[in-house]
Amino acid sequence: MIDTSATVLTVARKRSLDEGPVLREAIMDASADLFYERGFGATSIRDIADAVGISSSTMYHHFTNKQDILHACVARFMTEFVAATVPILKDPTRSPTERVREMVRLHLEISDDRRSELLVGNPIRHALNPEQQKEGIALQQAYHDAVRDAIRDGTARGEFAAVDPEITTMAVLDMLNGVREWYRADGTLSRDEVIGMYTEIVFKVLR
Amino acid sequence: MIDTSATVLTVARKRSLDEGPVLREAIMDASADLFYERGFGATSIRDIADAVGISSSTMYHHFTNKQDILHACVARFMTEFVAATVPILKDPTRSPTERVREMVRLHLEISDDRRSELLVGNPIRHALNPEQQKEGIALQQAYHDAVRDAIRDGTARGEFAAVDPEITTMAVLDMLNGVREWYRADGTLSRDEVIGMYTEIVFKVLR
To answer: Residue A96, exposed/middle/buried by CB under 10 A (0-12, 13-18, 19+)?
Structure first.
């Protein structure tokens, strides 16, 4: 026979322990969607609280202000993006060709899956404080450097013949970043078709 | 002997005739700089009037509101960009290779010279009304289509062997648009060096 009272107690304790982090994540998710749809300036703390279904005062328990939420969104996304891509780009057991092929796929998939979190352009540049901007730029730089090093490695091994590893990295990342601006899942091209064509274009640039 | 009174009169009339358009352009230039530096939301009509050295009421004589100024900036830039590039892309007396080479140079030069007017990203998407957005998108589309047609033409003539003219156009324009985000005249690379390397990368993509 199940001791229901103990189960209820366990669930209640688990809930109170998890509530903080879980709610924090929920606030970040709702904020990313609202910032993406309406812009950072046009979204109020009240809008975010309403979307999550909590009061503004509960909200202030988790975040000091809107900038603090934006920073948490950017930091979470960038940290996870770097964690997903950089180890592959540095993996010594794979060839530079394989590493770049996997990077193209991950870059396009993550950018599509987490479109609203990318929050590119002015909101980040203008709405974050210098310290927060520096943190975001350092994560972007870690990714950029890992891509460039894979291209350098491929050039050293004779797999690639890129124009200049630094400039080629910029060109490749800018073209991949562009996809989220126009790609829609309900368009004429499937995501895999887009990934296939961009992989081909990237290897034209590299060879 | 010069009839000074007539000269003064001519100058005075010229000034009153020119004042409108000249001041309008000056307001647009100052606004583009402020929107670029501080963001659209953080710039007030008063900031713009101060930068031009006029009163807010003189300002309202030329523009209804901030959105109206942003629209004028975007429309002027896009119209002039299209006027500079599309005729070259469609020029039947030049080969597709020559047309694309000239497009790459113009795209990078104009983007650098008129950086603040580009006003990319959220300000345009969120701050313009649907009619104004449509106008900007139509001009972007005219440029995109001219690039794609030059690539198609080059493919038909056997000069190019691009993956897909539509996707290749996206990739090429995104990589060119990326340059303004990192290129600085006081960096290690001269503008001509950057143009040279991007031209080489674009032709790798096309061939």
So the answer is: buried
Cβ-based burial of A178 (10 A; exposed 0-12, middle 13-18, buried ≥19):
buried
CA A172 to chain centre: 17
- Helix, strand, coil shares of chain B, percent, nearest 5, are 80, 0, 20
Q: Which strand (E) or helix (H) includes residue A2?
A: none
Q: How far apart are CA A72 and CA A132, in angstroms?
A: 9
Measured at the CA of B185, the angle between CA B26 and CA A204, to 5 degrees, comes to: 115
- The rounded distance, in Å, linking the Cα atoms of B153 and B137 is 24
Find chain A residues with C-beta within 8 A of B172's C-beta: 175
Instruction: Give the span between the Cα atoms of B206 and B160, in whole angstroms.
Output: 5
Q: What are the structure tokens assigned to B92, written together?
A: 């039947």
Contact A63, A72 (CB under 8 A): yes
Q: How far apart are CA B92 and CA B98, in angstroms?
A: 11
- What's the rounded Cα separation, in Å, for the pair A12 and B120? 49
Tell me how close the Cα of A112 comes to any Cα of chain B, in angstroms. Answer: 16
pLDDT digits (tens, 9 = 90+) for B46-87: 999 999 999 999 999 999 999 999 999 989 999 999 999 999
Q: Which chain B residues are closer than 8 Å to A198 by Cβ?
A: 167, 171
**Three-state DSSP state, A189:** coil
Name every residue whose Cβ is closer than 8 Å to that of residue B111 and which is 6 or more positions away in sequence: B118, B176, B177, B179, B180
User: Do A103 and A85 form a contact (C-beta atoms < 8 A)?
Assistant: yes
Is a pLDDT exceeding 80 seen at residue A73?
Answer: yes
C-alpha to C-alpha distance for A66 and A45, rounded to whole angstroms: 7
Spatial neighbors of A61 by CB under 8 A, at least 6 apart, are none
Give exposure, A107-128, as e/b (b: 16+ Cβ within 10 Å). Answer: bbebbbebbbbbbbbbbbebbb
The answer to whether the Cβ–Cβ distance between A121 and B120 falls below 8 Å is yes
CA distance A36 to chain B (A): 9
Q: Is the pTM of this model over 0.90?
A: no
Contact in structure between A128 and A136 (CB atoms under 8 Å): yes
Q: In the block, which residue shows the tokens 């795209």? A: B107
> How far is CA B53 from each of CA A24, B65, B73, rounded to the nearest angstrom?
47, 18, 19
Give the pLDDT of residue A61: 92
User: Cα angle vertex A119, ends A206, B82, to 5°?
Assistant: 65
Q: In this model, does residue A133 exceed pLDDT 90?
A: no
Cα–Cα distance measured from residue B131 to residue B122, given in angstroms and rounded to the nearest whole number: 16
